Every structure is written in C-alpha cells, then in structure tokens.
Amino acid sequence: MTRYATLLAAAAATAATFAAGALSAADVSMDDPNIAAAYEDGGRYFTEDDIPTFNVQEDGTVDWPTFSGFRRYHAECHVCHGPDGEGSTYAPALKNSAVEMDYYDFVDVVVNGRQKVGAAENSVMPAFGTNPNVMCYLDDIYTYLKAHGSGAIGRGRPASKEAKSDTFAENEDACMG
Asked: How far is the C-alpha of 127 from the C-alpha of 129, rounded, in Å?
C-alpha cells in the first residue's frame, strides 16, 4: 500500500480514537516523546509512536522532509494560512495545529476538509484528499509545521538541509506517478 493510500485509510478510520495524545503549545519540549525523533527510516524521522516528526541538527540543518514541507506548504497552504503557518485573518495558524492537534486528526482535516458554522464562527477548510500536490507531501507539510510550531526552526526558508534520500525520492516518484 502506498503512503498516499495509507494516509487516506488512516483519515477514514475515525481519527477521534487517537485524540488522547494531543499537545499544548505551552508544553512543547524537544525531549517530549510526541516531538522527539526516536528513529529514522529512509530519510524520514518518527516518534516512538510512529508519528512523522522532524530532525534539526545543532547547526540548524533540517531533515529533507522538513525542508520539503516548507516548500510544499508555501506552494499549497500559505495562501489561506499565511506564511510559515503563522495564520491570517482568513484561516488559523497551522503551526499550532501541528503541535496541539493529534496527527490523525490533522490528516483527517486535510483529507476531508472541515466546516465550522456558528454564531461566532464561519470557517471552511476544503478537502485536499484528491490533490496529490498535498497528499504526496502531507507528512512533509506536517513535519515542517511541527518543527516551526515547536520552536525548533524559525520563520523563513531553512538555511541548510540534509540531502534527499534515495528512498524518499522513490516514494515521491511512486506517489506522483
């Protein structure tokens, strides 16, 4: 099963059952098991719970998926959510969502969209589940926003990055067709 299909399946399988592990932005620590990279697989880093995360070296070099996420976020998401996931008058700050929201809830919202209508709020997030420019890079976008939201990287384009791994390139080619 491709990573794209896996993400779609995860989003369809009631994300609410995973919500117990949500973080508060005020409680972010680089040692937190919900943030810290426990292992690497093919150039992508994961937490102990197999959730994609970032890896920033002491000199500021970011892993390839985080750099890719910066690029993909600014190609697809910043129009509504503002530069660097900082939010806008139109849409909320996604840098906070990647830290505060459970990963599976984040995937669900991106895949299926969300509409909140009420007396104090009227917002619509369109569904991106059929957009390969988002779905093939969703973990990258998530790790970039998580790195920025946790304070591991600042605003703007990361100054240096790890090389793109062969595994990462193969997965990208397979997803994009």
From this structure: 6
**Torsion angle (degrees, nearest 10) of CA 47, 53, 55, 60:** -140
CA distance 134 to 4: 10
Other CB atoms within 10 Å distance of the CB of residue 60: 13
**How far is it, in rounded angstroms, from Cα 135 to Cα 110?**
9
> Which whole-number Å values give the CA distances from 109 to 1, 37, 56, in the listed order?
21, 24, 27
Of 89, 83, 93, nearest in space to 25 by CA: 93
Overall average pLDDT of the 54-61 stretch: 93
Cα angle 13, 82, 69 (rounded to 5 degrees) comes to 55
Domain boundaries, the chain: 3-176
pTM of the predicted model, to two decimals?
A: 0.79
The per-residue pLDDT for range 104-163, each reduced to its tens digit, is 999 999 999 988 877 777 778 899 999 999 999 999 999 999 999 999 999 999 999 999
Q: How many angstroms separate the CA atoms of 7 and 139, rounded?
A: 9
Amino acid at residue number 3? R
Predicted pLDDT at 95: 85
